From TrEMBL:
A GO MF term: alpha-(1->3)-fucosyltransferase activity
Similarity comment text for this entry: Belongs to the glycosyltransferase 10 family.
Keyword terms: Glycosyltransferase, Golgi apparatus, Membrane, Transferase, Transmembrane
Protein's name according to its UniProt entry: Fucosyltransferase
Membrane topology note: Single-pass type II membrane protein
Pathway terms, separated by semicolons: Protein modification; protein glycosylation
InterPro entries from the UniProt entry: Glyco_tran_10_C (IPR055270), Glyco_trans_10 (IPR001503), GT10-like_C_sf (IPR038577)
Length: 142
């Protein structure tokens, strides 16, 4: 394995569990969040992608038809698409580089200066308010 002991797996396929009451705090301790789609459909992106942004993590994605699907809706230079690498080793080498290079890693978080991410949980109604506020706030892009 290229990752060895560097990868923690949560969920049904992993050995670790993340109870909902502490999951946000637990996952916030990680720099990267792997968000792989259950199916690779053009223009479909899982809600887990956005949860990585809420935790100020860099999403490592595998889904959609290409990284361009994510570029259409995500802040610029904010995620890493698996398909952009020739093989797993190249991806792992890049993630290790970012882990050791704070400046390069933080470039993936530069978007947080000008953009916000809103969660519709727990109040589903609130996202309409957030959208309206974002559209009327000209100091930040909508």
């Amino acid at each position: 394995s290229y990752l060895g002991q560097d990868l923690d797996l949560y969920g049904k396929c992993g050995g670790k569990r993340c109870p909902e009451t502490i999951c946000y705090d637990t996952l916030s301790n990680y720099k990267f969040f792997f968000t792989f789609e259950n199916s690779n459909c053009k223009d479909y992106i899982t809600e887990k992608f956005w949860s990585a942004f809420l935790r100020r993590q860099v999403p490592v994605v595998f889904g959609g038809s290409s990284s361009q699907d994510y570029a259409k809706i995500a802040p610029p230079h904010s995620c890493i698409h698996v398909k952009d690498f020739k093989d797993v080793k190249s991806l792992v080498d890049y993630l290790r580089y970012l882990d050791q290079n704070e400046t390069a890693y933080n470039e993936y978080l530069d978007w947080t200066v000008d953009h916000d991410v809103y969660s519709e949980v727990p109040a589903r109604r609130k996202w309409w308010c957030n959208l309206c506020e974002a559209l009327h706030n000209r100091s930040k892009p909508a």
